Amino acid sequence: MEIKAVQKFIRMSPRKLRLVTHLVKEMSPSIALEVLPHLGKRAAGPLRKVINTAIANAKVKKIN
User: Fold this and answer.
1) Among candidates 12, 26, 24, 13, which has minimal Cα distance to 48?
2) Which of 15, 29, 45, 51 is the most buried (most CB within 10 A)?
3) CA angle 29-35-19, nearest 5°?
4) CB count, 10 Å around CB of 47?
5) Entry pTM
6) How far is it, in rounded angstroms, from Cα 29 to Cα 55?
7) How many alpha carbons fall within 13 Å on the CB side of residue 33?
8) Greater confidence, 4 or 18?
9) In angstroms, rounded to a whole number, what is the distance separating the alpha carbons of residues 12 and 46?
10) Residue 56's Cα: distance from chain center in Å?
């Protein structure tokens, strides 16, 4: 099962978000959360929120 989380209305250019997204795309969520604060990119904050939301969604769907 694939878990998705979508964040809308981020006030940042998609290009800046894509740069960070491509760096952590193939990582597991736990490793990505460890790496994101050390990237030094402002786009890491919103991406970290989305990953946390996806993890929470996965836990809820697993219970139900």
Assistant:
1) 24
2) 51
3) 90
4) 22
5) 0.88
6) 8
7) 10
8) 18
9) 9
10) 12
At 42, give phi and psi (nearest 5°).
Answer: -70, -25
Tens of pLDDT along 5-52?
Answer: 899 999 999 999 999 999 999 999 999 999 999 999 999 999 999 999
List, in order, residues 6 or more apart from 20 with CB less than 8 Å away: 36, 39, 41, 43, 44, 47
Contacts of 1 (CB under 8 A, 6+ apart): 61
Q: Phi and psi at residue 24, in whole multiples of 5°? A: -105, 5
Structure tokens at 21: 């997204």
Nearest Cα residue to 17 out of 43, 39, 52: 43
Q: What token pair was written down for 48?
A: 């970290």
